Amino acid sequence: xxMGSFLGVPIRVGGAVFGNLYLTERAGDxxxxxxxxxxxxTLAAMAGTAIAxxxxxxxxxxxxxxxxASERVIQRLLAGRLxxxxxxxxxETVLAVSEARGVVLRIGEGDxxxxxxxxxxxxxxxxxxVPLLGAEERRLGTLEIVxxxxxxxxxxxxxxxxxxxARSVAIARExxxxxxxxxxxxxxxxxxxxxxxxxxxxxxxxxxIGLTLQSAxxxxxxxxxxxxxxxxxxxxxxxxxxxxxxxxxSAPPSAxxxxxxxxxxxxxxxxxxxxxxxxxxxxxxxxxxxxxxSLGDEVAAVVxxxxxxxxxxxxxxxxxxxxxxxxxQVVITITDDGIGMPASGRRSGLENLRARAxxxxxxxxxxxxxxxxxxxxxxxxxxxx
Length: 385
Fold this sequence. Notes:
With about 375 residues, this protein is α+β, with helices and mostly antiparallel strands.
């Protein structure tokens, strides 16, 4: 509009122009003088200071909310009340604390990616994406926050706050996953100990009792001999039941995810079932944690070939299978008490095992066991070079 007088000064906040203060039509139709300009400049400076302080307070309150939310998520993760795979609850937490329109949280990648959306993350509007960085700057996923159309753009402060939250949650998630793995290993070790005690003590004691009873049968056609023979058969049946229990004990408590222990237990049971061999299966180290499906296929092939040889060619009465993760290597040792390696014959299966080991940068050997039988040893690194 037409103006007879005008005075304008900028309102600065942090060195940037936040807005402008305009005065027009001075009383008496007189122009604004230097005193007016000094007064309004002072007022603009005071307004800028008030706005800056208000922003600092708002920023402090927002950071407090983010910190409290981070602490809640971390405590729930480490206490086991929040699953490391529960991305939905974390996304809802971010949605509430950020006062945004939508949040997308992605953990992992490929087929194993976990994704959760809270609110409405579609459409236009300012977006902020920050990485979930775990220990050693390992990228675990992405956190994306979306404001509605016309919302304030994200600034450096928003990014720093979101990055701190994402990093804290990512590290807590890694710790929670590690704790779960340790608990699984501890449980597997305890189950293995129980299985080993059943094999070494209970089964051997039953064998001894059965042998003693067999030596006392005398005439199996007599009533007493028939009763003793029936008890010996009952002992054999009990031994078979205990063996099945040992295989189940050696398997991990959950079969929902890939488990080499479960796979090898099933393989040994199916291969030796009905063959009359006394078997022993041992695992040592983080077998399920460090051996992936690709190497697991190799391990299964080695065990299958060695057990088949023991059944078909060795005339063995007992076979022991050991699978261990020691340092950077997977070590497979399979020993039987059979007649040993023949001087000649087809050995294509053994050559295949040797080739598998060499291909993975490992070693393969087979030779006599003590005091009799054959021992096979297959060693490869568990991590591909």
